[in-house]
Amino acid sequence: MLEAKNISKSYENTKVLKDVSLSIERGKICALIGPSGTGKTTLLKILAFLEQPDSGSVTIDGITYKYPLEKSQKVEAPWPKVTVVFQQLFLWPHLTLLQNITLPLSARGLDDNPPRLQELLKLFDMNHFVYRYPNQASIGQRQRAALVRALLLNPEYLLLDEITSSLDIEQTAIILSQLKKLGSQGIGILTITHLLQFAHEAADKVIFMAGGEIVEEGGPNILLTPKHERLSQFLSVLKTVS
Amino acid sequence: MTVFDILVKYQQAFADGLLVTFQMCLIIWSAGLIIGSLLGILAAKWTKFLGIPTRLIAFVLSGMPMLVFLFWLHYPLQSLLGIVVDPFITAVVTISIINIFSVSEVVRIALRDFPNQYIVAAKVCGISSYHTVLYIQLPIILRQTLPSLLMIQVGMLQATLFASLISVNEIFRVAQQINSVIYKPVEIYTALGILFLAICLPMNGLALWLRKQFTRDYSEQ
Predict the structure, then answer these.
(1) Which residues make Cβ contacts (< 8 Å) with residue A119, sequence separation at least 6?
(2) For chain A, which residues score pLDDT lower than 50?
């Protein structure tokens, strides 16, 4: 289990996260929703061991890091057991999409052409553009490459930050069905999303954040019958927009 | 007497002059690229201890004409110190200093501005720091800096001509000496121009091509 407890984080004088606790279980999908600027990405970075909170603790498979760390303590970041696909994708610009996908394997001395690679390329319909450089590919193509790069790492916990934001409906549907499949294969997934339908259909748990704290959490049904006024407002805005 | 006749008749003198020019270039390019790169890396790492002094020196040097700097090192400084240094060494040291600080600035800025997200992406993919440097940082930084570094080296090659003004027998001084004997300025300086174009244009072309290639790759950010 990947668990964060009582996480607080400030940037200068702005408190971004206020006593936030959540857990990601293997084989479960957790959807994190909320307005922009509410600390969702910061929380994701903390869970990915890319940032340290001011206080609180993060536990992964029984190993707990309590923050602030003691001077002698060092975080052994469990990458790529925990991996992230960011909204900005972070593809290396000097490599083709295929090289972006396979570099993490070859750099770690692993087979860079495993059967799963061809399977994923076919599934995401990538064979016709996989030799392009990131700047020659569309955002949707880059998003697929970033996701395949993460999936090939066989992570145990996959953290996704708005990865379907630039995809068309068909590609979004493929990715969402893949996420469901990954969940059923035992991968713990946390996804920041604005896709309410996906959150409702695929997620085992939905967490709504606003103002740096968790306002409401529960099963997907909280999206249909929200208890908190703030979540109701957010849902009505999203429904109006969509 | 045609350009070809002059080149044939004075081939030994031209060859000697070219040899001196290439010797100078070899030292200036090596010093600039090796010491300048190291200085740039260290200046990016220790921004206060080395970064600020390096930037300050580069800034001062950028405001001083190379010729003034060369003459200052050749006459006033040596007179102040009461020493006489071979003009070849003075010229090489002067141009090397400028090359070193020019290169260090290019490298320092490239390292300072290296997009951190590429390192983050490598981290979350489980790529070690060593492999991140080898496969991601180094290739990107090389692509980013190579065109500028090539352009600077072309500039340094052209700057070696200033050495003739402090009596270094490099190619330009040889050309001047031959001209003073046969007085064929059009032919001699045309030949010299063609020679420099033959060396500098491909280097500049390569730099431009590299810049075009790598700007394309970099536009993703």
Answers:
(1) none
(2) none
